[in-house]
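1st attempt posting a full record on here, be nice pls
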Amino acid sequence: MKPAPFAYCRPATLADALDTLARHADARILAGGQSLMPALNMRLAQPGVLVDINRLPGLDGIHAGPEGLVIGALARHEAVLRSPLVVRHAPLIAQAMPHVAHLALRTRGTVGGSLALADPAAELPACAVALDAVLRVARRGGERAVPAAAFFRGIYTTALEPGEILTAVVVPPPAPGWRDRFGELARRHGDYALVAVAARCRLEGGRVAESRLVLAGVGLTPVRARRGEAALAGRPLDSAVIAEAGRALAAEIDPPSDVHASAALRRHLARVLAERTLATLATERG
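the predicted structure (as tokens):
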């Protein structure tokens, strides 16, 4: 399999990359390439110009500041997995990273590539929504910030507009009392999730003051289970409450059926995984 002919461009600055995208409506961005290259080889994607942004300076850093944890779009999955800053400031992402593909793919794959691809079964989009993260997007003449909840529009569809480049994801500092846990069920380790759960709870006086339950693999985008969250609100995180939240969560989702799993199986797995994840949270220290 060979890709269709295309022109190749490797800009040295972000401004050059944005100018190139503005000149070529059929351009595609190459970052890690772990999804794009197979699509090119199978001719599912046939861009006229490939814009390689791998050498753009300043987009692969991971640092903590007043705004929170900032992960550059070119940060490789393996760098995120091994970062003590991510463990300290975004433990949910740290727990999710071992589930992302395999070592060879994590070595090249990027955070920005995963978020911009917007695969509904991917781990990082669900984490971004659960963490109320903000995605920084550069365009000619400026930058804008898009909340993760508004970024994912559908399967492989995001709020990115033509000529824009995702440059970073910002995870706001967590308030005291939050506990995070990521869980996933897949046929084989490294496969896309049949179901994944990004769960967060903030406890006050032994009761759930706030929660975030976000599912991957059960919809066209990351799905926030608000009925499941409502079942937890103001209540102790005990087995009866967890079971009720699991039932509420399963009742509100409408997962797809495909060759990997039926809708009924995904709904069942979502309930089991959510209850298991919440039970783990209940026994953890904040």
